[in-house]
Amino acid sequence: MNKILKRLLTGVLTLATVFTALPTTAVHAAETQYWTESEERVGIVEKVMNDGSIGSTFNEGHMTVEGEDAYCIDINTGFKNGYKTRSDASTRMTAYQIEDVALSLEYVKQYTKSHTGLSSQHAYLLRQLVVWQRLSVHLGWSCDNVRASYDEISKSVQDEVFAGAKAFVRENKGRYDCYGYIYTGEGQDLGQFFAELAVGNGKIQKSSSNTTVTNGNDCYSLSGATYGVYSDKGCTKSVATLTTNANGNTDTVELRAATYYVKETKAPKGFQLDKNVYTIIDMMYYDEEGVYFLTAKGKAFYDQLMEQQYVAISATKDKIAVSLRGKIKNIGKKNLDIMFEKNPYMKKIYPGDTKDAIEVFRLYEAQGEYFDISNPSNIVRDTITIGKTEAVQTGYFIGKECIGCKLCCSVCPQKCIDISSVPVTINQNHCLHCGRCAEICPKQCIEKRGSL
User: Fold this and answer.
1) Cα–Cα 20 to 30 A to 277, which of 113, 116, 233, 449?
2) Average pLDDT for 10-32
3) Cis-peptide, bond into residue 423, ω within 30° of zero
């Protein structure tokens, strides 16, 4: 289980021309000091001014804070190795500025990861350049087009990166939690900026509780059930609407990390309207004992958890999804600090001592599914169990009545049906559970097992 989960488990602009550097903050001797230094040279920089002239040329160093990457945030001041004091970036930058810089950095990280021809030095230099470009815009440095020498990094690569970073920022506003730190002391100030993906993909699957009656019965259909997704328990603040297909599945919807509530608003043919309100929550941490999430004691959801002691949770990252359902227990404040460290956006929701209102729940006996669609032509599916739970077999299974006609294989989108012998067999680890094989089978000998 751990191996699978580990793979899964994100000044005012109108006055900008007045400033040539970020606003300063007082340094107090009692505060923690961080060692900052400039290590190896990473490349020649040309400080291109907005009028097209080159203001200066210099060989930029690789800045670090306690050995971790950091970036110059004052292009007009020389750097000196030494101890500096850290402050939250929000004390000197607006949320918009932090997001702009952090998302620009995130794009360059993704770009250089996928373009292996760039050296680690040039990857760092590109990150530093986008930091300067964005701060120049915000702070009026008039060098919005600062660049590396084309002898270092080609013009085509730099143009692609800089244009891509701007587009990435526009397209991803609100999808990431962005924050940062600024290090102040003698000489040039340094900054660190982070963008952590704060959205996931949610979907709903409707199933029949009495398949003996409903399967193959034209009086019933899983298609057309409509669900509302809401941000409040009273289901008044809608964030999405989802409708099921013939297999009971909806499309996916992207949601920011939070608690959501789901209610059926229209029942499909033959079924009564489900009046229950279901809660969608996020996994936030896991270890050998289970999977953890948290909620505030004052919420109705907290009371529901304490009463039911059962929950279903899901998470999605990089086209890999994990879903789990099973027994939970309240463990108070245990693991609360580490959950906040691994999910830093929570510090903004519950700053300081206000997190005392939260308690942690552990999912300790559960079954679920791992689903990887990162390679669409070869999806991977597996079963997950936690604790003493025994895996329940789910999926489509071909019976002994199979005549080997191979029609099922002809409609299978994953081509995961082995037709080398009769009866043919389905590779469950690659099956999408779409049900097309069962629909086309002339002998109707493909059985759907479990709640898919």
Assistant:
1) 449
2) 38
3) yes
Pick the CATH number of 199-386 from 3.40.640.10, 3.40.50.300, 3.90.1150.10, 2.30.110.10: 2.30.110.10
Query: Letter for the amino acid at 392?
Result: V
Nearest to 181 by CA among 93, 101, 87, 79: 87
Domain layout of the chain by residue ranges: 10-197, 199-386, 395-449
**Could you tell me if 384 and 368 are in contact, meaning their C-beta atoms sit under 8 angstroms apart?**
yes
- Mean of the per-residue pLDDT values of the chain: 85
Same fold, 199-386 and 395-449: no
Could you report the per-residue pLDDT of 173-222, keeping only the tens digit for each?
A: 988 889 999 999 988 899 999 998 877 777 787 877 777 888 888 999 99
- Enter the tokens of residue 357: 């209102």
* CA of residue 11 relative to chain centroid, distance: 30
Mean pLDDT of 236-243: 93
For residue 3, is pLDDT > 80?
no
The whole-model pTM stands at: 0.61
Does position 400 have pLDDT exceeding 90, yes or no?
yes
- The answer to whether residue 5 scores a pLDDT higher than 50 is no
Assigned CATH class of 395-449: alpha beta
- Residue 291 predicted with pLDDT over 90: no
Residue 52's pLDDT is: 92
Name the more confident of 352 and 402: 402
